[in-house]
Structures are given as C-alpha cells and as structure tokens.
Hints:
By secondary structure, the chain is mainly alpha-helical. The protein has one domain (20-98). 55% of the residues lie in helices and 0% in strands. The chain contains 4 helices and no strands. It has helices at 20-36, 42-49, 55-64, 80-98. α1 packs across α2 (42-49) and α2 (42-49) packs across α3. The longest helix has 19 residues, at 80-98. The radius of gyration is 25 Å and the shape is elongated. The model has no long low-confidence stretch (mean pLDDT 85).
Amino acid sequence: MCAYVPTQNTKRGPKPKITKKISLRIKQAFSIFQDAGQKVNSRKIVKTTEVKVSIRTVQRHLMGMQLKYKRVLPAINLTKAHRAKRIAEVTKWFEDQHC
C-alpha cells in the first residue's frame, strides 16, 4: 500500500540564476549608465556589477524588465574632412570610369 506524502511547495526545474540581489544590481547599473548618457549594453552591465552570469542571461533579464534589447547596426563614423575626401575620390573615380 502506498501513502500520499505531500511535497514541498517548490518550483520544478532549475533555480533562477538571477536572484533579487543581482536584479537590483543590474537595475542600478542600468540607471547609472542612463543618467550618465552612456549607451547601455549587457557587457557593460556584467563588467560593472561583476555578477557570475552570462551576457545572454543579462540580455534575457533586460527583456523581462520590458527593456528593448537589440543589436546595434554597424555604422561608419566619419568626420567632415574624411567624408569630403571620400566624396572627392568617388566623384573622381566615377568621372574617370564612366564618362
């Protein structure tokens, strides 16, 4: 005969890696970067808070906080002098090749 034994009221599966303490540290780091006007990304947060979780875990946590996480598209940052020089080279090439 088998007797019913009530189990503990615990959740099944792996325990969450980000505890309330770590979550608070992430929120504080996020607000510090935002107040300073710096770009916020998960690598910076992991480095400054020194938490022992992966960057992807922090990204998922930021998404859970209703913060949009997306990859920044690479852009070529040129000064006005560089831009003028590139335009001059392209126009010269265009005139030489296509006229």
